Amino acid sequence: MAIAEYEKLDAMALSALIARREVSASEVLDEAIARAEKHNPAINAITIPLYDLGRQAAAAPLPAGPLAGAPFLLKDLGSLLAGTRSTGSSKLFADFVAPHDATIVARYRAAGLVTFGKSASPEMGLAPSTEPAMFGPCRNPWNLGYSSGGSSGGSAAAVAARILPMAHATDGGGSIRIPASACGLFGMKPTRARNPSGPDVGEGWGGQAVGHCVSISVHDSAALLDASAGPDIGDPYWAPPPVGKFLDEVGRDPGKLRIALCVEPWNGEPVDAECRRATEDAAKLCESLGHAVTIARPTFDVEAFREATRVVIAANVYATLAARAKAIGKTLEATDAEPLTWSLAELGIRYTAADYAAAMTVIHRVGRVVARFFTQHDILLTPTMCSPPWPLGVLSLSSQDTDAYLVAVNRSIGFTSLFNAAGNPAMTVPLHWTASGLPVGVQFVAPFGDEASLFRLAAQLEQARPWKDKRPPMIG
């Protein structure tokens, strides 16, 4: 490998080397591609290589900026890159070629990021594991028999394997935080509408779906959000503007935070002892850093909330499939999707417009409950998942064991999905590994619009208990 200690360098460090002309962007990309060719056959994280496109970008003049020249992967789900396939691991979209860039992708280009591939996603991003029938399972670099999480499992696996230090991810119910937790990474889900969803859609899943990244460092995540955040012309709504740059928050004193500790998920699923231990240990770490920790949680009608989110997601799944089938001139049928994707589409067919309107009312009501909770607390601390990473096969959308699948889904999203509905920023921080060597993240949530507090706290935790140099055994 050509660049000394590449796997220890984050995106900002690589960009700094390029800016100082110690290496070129092309040499950095060559290193990323070499690592992809070495590790991807084992983990299956990159499903659509775009190496030639990356080489063209790396050879072009770079803009000034903290991430210019850094290698990058886009998740193969809605992140349109002009002239490239965007499949969402769905056979209906197998031949879809993006006619233009998504707004967020255009901003990544403007920041000088060098995209060299698309990362794996489950079909339509619908599972908390990445095991699409179209491309096959993505494997966790910490243990190849286990899931890398989902739906941004390809990005998380690639970063965990140190193919690159940061990659694009999206999150509609935990899909940034779950794979980051499973792969030992930092994962920030921004506030609703912090990043644009256009130009083709105004919002995803009724505002629950957002895009950002998984990374090995906190300041990479902050720098990327600086590059991508802010409304685009015509956006239906946007997040409260930040006071300053997110990158400037990294390293600032977070002050004495009022942290609420919750280790019981809202959906009532049992919590694995490792996840409980990780969270309680994180609470002790926060106390040692001067923060005040008390036990508290927002309360609401959980069953009404679960049904409401089911309505919104199912309706969106059916609408997406139906629109694509119409566009390519075919009749939509069950064989056009994996079995558990199709079961959601069937629900979407049965729900009415009135059901959808009522569901959105429930979701907004829950959001107000969460907002009131944060008038009394600065941060909420929970496990990221109810369990460590799952073995491969349990969370496949083609699983024949629907009961086991649903149990695993609920134990994956029990702490995460609430904050997609409420819109709060939430991050998972890699502070714990199991005795068998699997990562277990812990989740921190802040008030709506307050990524700044999360970045300050994350940097403090990163300094107190560094994780960047922890790497899977498979990469040596």
From TrEMBL:
GO molecular function, one term: catalytic activity
Bilayer-crossing regions: none
UniProt xrefs under Pfam families: Amidase
Highest taxon listed in the record's lineage: Bacteria
Residues in Amidase domain copies: 27-454
Record InterPro entries: Amidase, Amidase_CS, Amidase_dom, AS_sf
Function: Hydrolyzes indole-3-acetamide (IAM) into indole-3-acetic acid (IAA).
Family per similarity comment: Belongs to the amidase family.
The protein's name: Indoleacetamide hydrolase
Source species: Vineibacter terrae
Lineage: Bacteria, Pseudomonadati, Pseudomonadota, Alphaproteobacteria, Hyphomicrobiales
